[in-house]
Amino acid sequence: MSTSSTASAAKPPMRDALVAAAFQLFLERGYERTTVDDIVTLAGVGRRSFFRYFPSKEDVVFPDHERCLAEMTAFLAERGTEHEPVRRVCDAARLVVRMYAENPPFSVQRYRLTKQVPGLRAYELSVVWRYERALAEYLRGRFAGQSDGTLRADVIAAAVVAAHNNALRSWLRSGGRTDADAAVDHALGHVQSAFACPAAPGAGQELPGAQGGFPRAGHPEDVIVLVSRRDAPLWRVVQQLESARGRD
Q: Where do the CATH 1.10.357.10 domains begin and end in the chain?
């Protein structure tokens, strides 16, 4: 292999080079004082090359979200009714944390930069809203025809995003040193325990035990499912049942 071809192989792709140049300048000069011209000069490319990959300076801070959003949308498009819908959107949210965990130093660096720049925080909120909208649209399709199906979809999507982001920020604040997957799994477990259905209903199928889209305490059709050991004494089973019904 020639020296020139070896150098070419070692050179990062233009998109990655632009991201690396941008963050080097953000750290040295600050985000606001860095221009697109500064970035392309350091990367050794022209302005046209920058805008081929990034519509704006803000986009170079979040270079991987479009890819992740496309992967999430494709994942949710596999609409098999065997997928329990709440678990499905939780699994879709896990794609996001895995994207962050692919490069912890970069993700932590971006998190710290975003905290310092109000414009980037606003941009990040718009990105988060697009993830939430993708989750909600999937759930609306799964809950179509149910009473309060749209409300249920929107509430669950918001809960998934809130739980995911809480765990993700905790991981970022740790400097990326803790287990991101474990933190997100724990947070999303709360969402699944609150909203998931025992079976996976198809679109238009009413959720068991739900009237108006959500279970209501005290409704005549409420169902209690009690799991107990076969050899448990009867008094213990009755005690568990009374506790589940809210009695003293």
A: 62-195
